[in-house]
């Protein structure tokens, strides 16, 4: 679970509901002072939300890019039905394409980024239709299913969501947190936000997307055949997809590879300045 370092939107950003052909989605939309040199659509991961990118917004805008971070359907402030088929990967990929269509006139070429689970969803969107995008950045996401060491945790969560309400599951997860993740190590406003976000998330979204992470096939060769410029970014350590696996994926894609030192699974929240620098550099280079 990504922990944003702050909840304060920078002056360059505003929160609103983005209307698309597939419904409205809650977004944070940051814009540079002048005309954007490009637009980036930022898609969060499992248990995540648009707030996971909040620390990237100002530095990306300062680099000349419009950045639009979105809550996917059933995530935090975007509504979603209590129906697992609504969260099939194909449905979520179509949502991304609709979001892309809604922001693509925002200035310059459109760049797509997916964090963790979002990397799998954005890949599915690109494989369905790469035409809207100048590039795809896969942030802390791998070629196929999550690492075996994490699959047990996700299965336990899916089972709990099938038998317990969200409040009880939250309390159970907090009881299992390591000491460094305890409430006393988290600012109170961030802790309150994490709980609120969890309770706002539709459980069927978590169940359906959790199953996707357990069963995702390797689609790297398909992505390579699109010819789309790609960038694989991760921290120096990752528990969901081992870093060597992401190194190999980048090689297979002939992608740019960036490792953010001092970061783990969420470089966007843990080392936002370095992450934003790497993203803006890549987007500027591919035009």
Automatic annotation (TrEMBL):
GO MF entries: hydrolase activity
InterPro entries to which the protein is assigned, alphabetical: AB_hydrolase_1, AB_hydrolase_fold, Carboxylesterase_BioH
Superkingdom in the source lineage: Bacteria
Keywords per UniProt: Hydrolase
Pfam family, one: Abhydrolase_6
Transmembrane segments: none
Residues covered by the AB hydrolase-1 domain: 41-278
Name used for this protein in its record: Alpha/beta hydrolase
